[in-house]
Amino acid sequence: MNLAHRAAATQATWDKYRGRTFDWKGATCIHVLRFHLRSMGHKPPRLPAFQSPIGARRALANRGWGGLSDLSRGIGLMEIGTAEMIVGDVAILPGNEGFDALTICAGNKFMGFQEEAAGFQMMELDRPAIITAFRI
Fold first, then answer.
1. Which residue, 13, 21, 24, 128, has most beta carbons within 10 Å?
2. What percent helix, strand, coil does the chain show, rounded to 5?
3. pLDDT of residue 94
4. pLDDT tens, 85-99?
């Protein structure tokens, strides 16, 4: 996929989630990842239904995944170094409630749910804070 297509897919993800608040019933990092993968031309597996942090943990554990990094590896995404990230790639960061957080590279900034802001936002990240990164 060339950079123009990656940018268009990333913009589609931004357009869908911009300003939406985090919601366990349909606006979580896993939902964002699945939409973004589809925008990038992938066919990710169906998401298990969950409506709470306990349900999300159970859904991940049922598939043998301990978190978003395991999920990303489990669906075949290629792990890369943070310096290799380009538009549309995924970064996993420490989150809250025992979950990691997912952000998507949008050039010099990243987009994702942010605790301090109301909803899905663009943010600047310190790359050393990134746990792992994946090529989409």
1. 13
2. 35, 20, 45
3. 87
4. 999 999 999 887 778
Its pTM stands at 0.90
Half-sphere exposure at residue 8, Cβ-oriented, CA atoms within 13 angstroms:
8
Per-residue model confidence as pLDDT tens digits over 10-55: 999 999 999 899 888 889 988 999 999 999 999 988 877 788 889 8
Q: How many helices (H) and strands (E) does the chain have?
A: 4, 6
Query: For residue 103, what is the enclosing H or E element?
Result: strand 100-105
Rounded-to-integer distance, Cα 109 and Cα 86, Å: 11
Burial class (CB in 10 A: 0-12, 13-18, 19+), 75: middle
Rounded distance between C-alpha atoms, residue 88 and residue 103, angstroms:
10
Report the greatest alpha carbon distance in the chain. Answer: 39
